[in-house]
Amino acid sequence: MRDTVKQDCVTILRAGIEAVDPSAAVKKSVSVTGDRLQIGGQDYNLSHCRNIFLIGAGKASAVMALAIEEILADRISDGVVITKYGHISDCRKITLVEAGHPVPDEAGFRGAQSLAQMAARCGEDDLVLCMISGGGSALLPLPVTGVSLEEKQETTKLLLNCGAAIHEINAVRKHLSQIKGGGLAHMVYPATLISLILSDVIGNDLDVIASGPTVPDRSTFGDCVDILKRYNISSSIPDSVRTHLLEGASGKRRETPKPGDPIFKKTQNLIIGSSIQCLEAAERKAREIGYNSLVLSSFVEGETREVAKVHSAVLKEVISFGRPVPRPACLISGGETTVTIVGGGKGGRNQEFVLSCGIDLAGWRGAHVFSVGTDGTDGPTDAAGAYADWRMVERAQELGLDAHDYLKRNDSYHFFKGLNDLIMTGPTKTNVMDLRLLIAT
Prior knowledge:
It is a single chain. By secondary structure, the protein is an alpha/beta fold. It has two domains: 2-10 and 276-440, glycerate kinase, domain 1; 22-142 and 177-219 and 256-273, 3-Layer(aba) Sandwich (Rossmann fold). It is built from 16 helices and 15 strands. The strands form three sheets. A six-stranded parallel sheet has the order 6-5-4-7-8-9. A six-stranded mixed sheet has the order 10-11-15-12-13-14, sandwiched between helices. A three-stranded antiparallel sheet has the order 1-2-3. The radius of gyration is 22 Å and the shape is globular.
């Protein structure tokens, strides 16, 4: 039964990922008839375009760019797209740059410089197509004057480890960047700018996805200062970063572009894929293979261990009383949780979620938990996530592994590696947050 359910989870995952295939999403949203380009209900006359530039950043951006190349062929003049290591495609017309994620690196810095230089070439009669997906924040590191890449890397690590939510992390990133928070739209103006966006954030907020390089920014320097105080890291961040944010909050630095700024008059932003599409496809597949399936929510966020407790409680309800659906049941949720790092282990939010649930569900016969990042990577590991059932703690004890100790040390990766329950997919080349499955057989 265990191996069958584990394989069912993988089958359901594949159906969810196929539903948010970046190439298919682009081709569904973009078409060309003669000199007419249609994107999301809007029409553009390509005969009026002097140049067509293709730019972008994100884990799915290379696949999205390849789809645009196939649609526009030789009409593309030039382009630069930055993606995570291992997430490339076979683009011919543009330059692909592989760079670091979730912590930006030198390759990303050089790629962002090249992209900014291309944006600066754009004129009023040019058309810029921008491919944006999750991961774009880390892959577009072009710090403001006075802040080094190393200082921005250090700040990013502190924000990732303190438990800050993604919109809080991105608010700070925007105000330390020349590109994020509408900065790219400012660089491209007065060219026409069209962004195709694969969402990896809860609620599909445009100014949060990849830190909103082509949309107005609602966050402020004051918000950034408050975030640092909220997580008690004001004294830990580099002096240059703290000075920049404090000067911005006091009005000494120019704010990011806000709603109503004229630079956005020639900009179209279109979401072409999101978490709910993945979850709904997963629900259909689960039903198809015999489960009573239900999507709980696509808006799940919060501290991973606390979220795990709630999910475990719902699965116990199914096992005990057949609510909200009877067995065999498959409950599905999406979103993105956060992990406050307190130990020196290795893992990711999905692996920690499964480990937490596995502890809570010990002895609850018929309980199974599966959680993965839809991009194929979970935190700084090569695993997408993990699987556990009601015998996880018992099986671990037989191998001399203490589940509680591994959770305490944030070492879920090595725990599940020992149980042979890591889920390894490799890069999926899409990214719509996480997919969690709770199964009661």
